[in-house]
Specification:
It contains 15 helices and 7 strands. Helix 1 crosses helix 2, helix 5 crosses helix 6 and helix 7 runs parallel beside helix 9. By secondary structure, it is α/β, with parallel strands linked by helices.
């Protein structure tokens, strides 16, 4: 491990990467790397005597036999220790139970009950506009306490452009179905082109909405219940909407809510967005952002040439275009982990945006 780490950091350094940056990517301290480079041999000898509190092999076998017995197989070590104490018996502590079970590769679901199914949504990545849309419903307060208007809002995650909206007096799968049909026609969406991601609400998973998506040839993707991170773009958009400086606390009528939403969307789609290098969602959606970012790179390049002493060895600001936009953070983290492990090698391009099996 030490030799591999030293080799990777050295290779990265020879290709222009700072040693401290490489150490950070590998998760080791810079001083630790210096120590390993000077002497990569591990001279630690470990304890010279066996700890007095260590269980013998016979005691470990007895512990495993108790943990796997019919009486205790459905219980965690915490419960097992308590039940043994009720009988006046003591074998080992809870932590020792866990340690021995881990050594014997039994620290997993051991009971007869069904194991927990931790569903995760399929990883999605968009390479261009109209590949993945995210949508959700948020409420707007009215002048009557306890009554709300509901905003159906759909956005393109690649460009962050708000594609369309509706304001209704109730949540209904019929409203969402009609909005989806209208937007697919307006945007010219073909069959098998688009993935629509949402949470698990009734308007999202209702029979009418699912039938509409199937008819349109749109693939449906859903978040886990009560996990906002699975639909971050819509959640972030709603926060921007509710914290907008001109956002009224309450709306007097449905027409007022519609008018305000039209003005908000016009502002949002034509306002620089931090997630896409401070170009507007409309510019990115139309493909105009590439020329804008190239001009910015040229400005910074000339500034560095004019006053190189101000930049030292630091690179100029990154104005590279984001070619891939991830919906599931786990997919993005996996690519990042691959980069850290390889340090200087490039990551194989992710397949085009579709739900993987």
């Amino acid at each position: 491990m030490k030799l591999l780490a030293v080799e990777l950091v050295t290779e990265a350094s020879s290709k222009g990467c700072r040693i401290k940056v490489s150490c950070f990517d590998l998760g080791i301290d810079f001083k630790t790397f210096q120590s390993w480079r000077e002497d990569p041999v591990d001279k630690r000898k470990g304890p010279l005597t066996v700890p007095k509190n260590k269980l013998s092999d016979e005691e470990k076998d007895g512990l495993i036999k108790v943990a796997n017995s019919q009486e205790y197989i459905d219980y965690s070590p915490w419960v097992i220790v308590a039940k043994l104490a009720d009988k006046g018996e003591y074998i080992a502590s809870e932590s020792t139970f866990y340690k021995v079970l881990k050594e014997r590769k039994q620290l997993q679901h051991r009971s007869n009950s069904r194991p927990v199914n931790r569903y995760r949504p399929a990883p999605l990545v968009a390479h261009g506009p109209n590949e993945i849309w995210s949508w959700d419903i948020t409420y707007l307060k009215t002048m009557v306490r306890g009554q709300f208007y509901y905003v159906y809002l759909m956005m393109d995650i690649w460009s962050r452009r708000i594609v369309g909206f509706e304001v209704k007096e109730e949540e209904s799968m019929n409203h969402s179905s009609k909005l989806m049909s209208k937007l697919c026609k307006t945007e010219g969406i073909n069959k098998d082109q688009l993935v629509l991601h949402s949470d698990n609400g009734g308007p999202m998973k209702g029979a009418t909405m699912l039938a509409t998506l199937e008819k349109l040839g749109v693939a449906a993707s859903f978040s886990r219940p009560r996990v906002s991170n699975d639909n971050p773009y819509s959640e972030s958009l709603f926060k921007t909407l509710k914290y907008c400086p001109k956002y009224p606390d309450r709306f007097e009528s449905l027409s007022e809510a519609n008018s305000w939403m039209i003005s908000f969307i016009n502002w949002y789609n034509n306002h620089p967005h931090s997630g896409i290098k401070f170009v507007t969602p409309m510019e990115r959606h139309l493909g105009l952002d590439q020329e804008i970012l190239e001009k910015r790179k040229e400005v910074y390049r000339k500034a560095k040439i004019k006053n190189p002493e101000r930049w030292s060895s630091r690179k100029t600001r990154n104005w590279e275009r984001e070619e891939k936009v991830y919906l599931n953070h786990l997919q993005k983290k996996r690519d990042a982990d691959m980069n850290i492990a390889l340090v200087v090698t490039s990551v194989t391009d992710t397949p085009r945006a579709r739900m993987s099996a």
